[in-house]
Amino acid sequence: MTIPAEIVAGSTSVWIEPAATDPAGDPATSATWTLQIAFRTNTAGEGATVTGSARSDGGWDVALSAATTTSWDAGTWYWQRRITSGSDVVITGSGTTTVLASLAFTGDPTAFDGRSQAEKDLEAVQAAIRAIVSKGAKQYSIGSRSYTATDLGQLMQREAQLKAIVARERAAEKVAQGLGNPMSMFVRFG
Q1: Contacts of 130 (CB under 8 A, 6+ apart)
Q2: What span, in angstroms and rounded, lies between the C-alpha atoms of 83 and 32?
Q3: How many helices (H) and strands (E) in the chain?
Q4: 129-142: string of b/e by CB count within 10 Å (b at 16+)?
Q5: pLDDT by residue (tens digit) across 39-67?
Q6: pTM, whole model, 2 decimals?
């Protein structure tokens, strides 16, 4: 299955799905089977079903139009791939894809925060540490949790965890961009 790992809202995504296998283990090709992929998220009223077009090699061409994805919320979307032939319906796969927010806008742009959740949490923890250490705050709240000066050790431990998560995210992003792993160091002798 070649469903994209990431889809940008408001953009067209095109890919090829190979022929599948029916319950008897026989090839299920586009000559006799229809492919549909359903996309859903945890927001009521959001979802789409796309039907593949038959290919001469037995697979399917699949296209999600920009008009279909333009209203998609950024986040995790779930997909389910199924093939049908007459009254037979076979689920051939399921998984998740990440929908990224589009940066396109009309008129005046609104604020955009493209940071990961770990980056946002790291900023909040660092603000709490600063408030307690430099401003002498007796208490600081992050979400529904309150911290005091005696919890400074917990905050510093959480900061270290979040820094490691953010570093891994940034390294993975560099690798995905083809820039190599910044965590790797090579040494030449002689």
Answers
A1: none
A2: 10
A3: 3, 12
A4: bebbeeeeeeebee
A5: 998 888 889 999 999 999 999 999 999 99
A6: 0.66
